[in-house]
């Protein structure tokens, strides 16, 4: 090992120990009960580094030695501080010091993470004890289980003979609806309903505007005073989805985008205007600023929406198999009822491959957009009730009408 490399490793280990030790001394309330401060952490980190340089057996002896001393220190300070954070941090200093020999960059990054965790003691205690309710914790754990435990276990093979729907696909929709509800709930807690819901709605639209419409509909049904804010958030989700729609078409067929651009710009403007009006109405009412204490999402509604979208996908696949290439454009519009971006990509690909002419493809783009608006209108009424449904339908109708008007005026 070269001298410069050895010096770099030793300095990395020393820096890790100093950083963790400084944070420990800074955050500890009683210096008399502090078993390991800046110097101790720096020394044990160097000990781990030198031990690993000598060999794995020497490193193991260093770990055992520090472990014994840490145990003795814990028994000595247990009456004043029953926590194990300091002892675990000390052992981590040894481990990270040894790791710096193998991968100094990774060791330094992990050292920063350890220091940040130690420094965030008060905010994390406040978050867990005061800010998060028991119901919110239950919802977060349910979402985590749905995404990280259940979904990886589901088979990816399709259930139907057309290959349109698989258990993983259906459950992914469920997780998206739950995630949008959680995202909106967190944003409302942070920024209030006036700004939190629109922000959450817009960014949720890049993942799934259908899930966003459903999630906001659930909130509008539970909190009727927030209907305008929820409807505005749902329309902003569709705005994000429309921007992604434009990007998909542009990536596959720039020529088609150039011909359809007047219609798409008109649709964007109409959606911005209607969502802006609803947002202004929400701001005029003080009740939208009220804190939400309800659930972040409802699993039953998420399952219902997923089943509905899966049913539409099956219908589109069956009709596509029935009509074949003769009804390929109609089938693509039916696909848009469930997934607008896949349908947009399909229309653009049909134009690029020469299956449909450019003029027909331009009409197809607007047909896909209108089909998606129809599906989301149904979702809005099903999830949020009549008032929410009409407000969302107004915005989607304005978007679709503006797009068709732009097409007619550009001819």
From TrEMBL:
This is DUF4010 domain-containing protein. Residues 10-124 form the MgtC/SapB/SrpB/YhiD N-terminal domain. Pfam families: DUF4010, MgtC. The keyword Transmembrane helix applies. Residues 175-384 form the DUF4010 domain. The chain crosses the membrane at residues 6-23, 43-76, 88-119, 140-157, 169-187, 228-253, 259-280, 301-320, 326-348, 388-409. It comes from Comamonas testosteroni (Pseudomonas testosteroni). Keywords: Membrane, Transmembrane, Transmembrane helix.
């Amino acid at each position: 090992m070269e001298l410069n490399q050895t010096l770099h490793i030793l300095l990395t280990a020393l820096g890790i120990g100093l950083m963790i030790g400084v944070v420990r001394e800074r955050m500890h309330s009683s210096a008399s009960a502090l078993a390991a401060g800046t110097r101790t952490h720096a020394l044990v980190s160097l000990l781990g580094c030198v031990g690993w340089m000598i060999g794995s057996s020497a490193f193991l002896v260093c770990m055992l030695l520090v472990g014994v001393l840490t145990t003795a220190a814990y028994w000595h300070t247990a009456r004043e501080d029953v926590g194990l954070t300091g002892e675990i941090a000390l052992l981590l200093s040894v481990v990270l010091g040894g790791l710096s020999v193998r991968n100094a960059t990774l060791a330094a990054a992990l050292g920063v993470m350890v220091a940040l965790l130690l420094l965030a003691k008060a905010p994390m205690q406040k978050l867990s004890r005061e800010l998060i309710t028991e119901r919110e914790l239950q919802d977060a754990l349910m979402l985590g289980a749905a995404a990280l435990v259940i979904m990886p276990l589901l088979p990816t093979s399709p259930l139907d003979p057309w290959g349109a729907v698989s258990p993983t696909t259906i459950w992914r929709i469920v997780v998206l609806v739950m995630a949008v509800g959680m995202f909106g709930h967190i944003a409302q807690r942070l920024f209030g309903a006036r700004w939190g819901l629109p922000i959450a709605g817009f960014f949720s639209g890049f993942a799934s505007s259908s899930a966003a419409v459903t999630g906001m509909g659930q909130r509008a049904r539970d909190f009727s005073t927030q209907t305008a804010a929820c409807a505005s958030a749902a329309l902003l989700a569709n705005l994000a989805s429309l921007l992604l729609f434009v990007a998909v078409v542009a990536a596959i067929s720039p020529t088609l985008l150039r011909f359809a651009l007047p219609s798409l710009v008109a649709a964007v403007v109409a959606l911005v205007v209607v969502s802006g009006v609803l947002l202004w109405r929400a701001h005029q009412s003080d009740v939208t600023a009220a804190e939400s204490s309800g659930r972040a999402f409802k699993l039953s509604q998420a399952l219902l929406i997923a089943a509905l979208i899966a049913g539409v996908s099956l219908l589109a696949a069956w009709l596509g198999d029935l009509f074949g290439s003769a009804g390929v454009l109609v089938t693509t519009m039916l696909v848009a009822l469930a997934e607008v971006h896949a349908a947009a990509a399909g229309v653009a690909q049909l134009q690029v491959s020469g299956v449909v002419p450019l003029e027909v493809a331009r009409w197809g783009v607007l047909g896909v957009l209108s089909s998606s608006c129809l599906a989301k209108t149904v979702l809005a009424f099903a999830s949020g009730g009549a008032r929410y449904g009409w407000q969302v339908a107004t915005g989607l109708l304005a978007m679709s009408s503006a797009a068709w008007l732009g097409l007619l005026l550009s001819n």
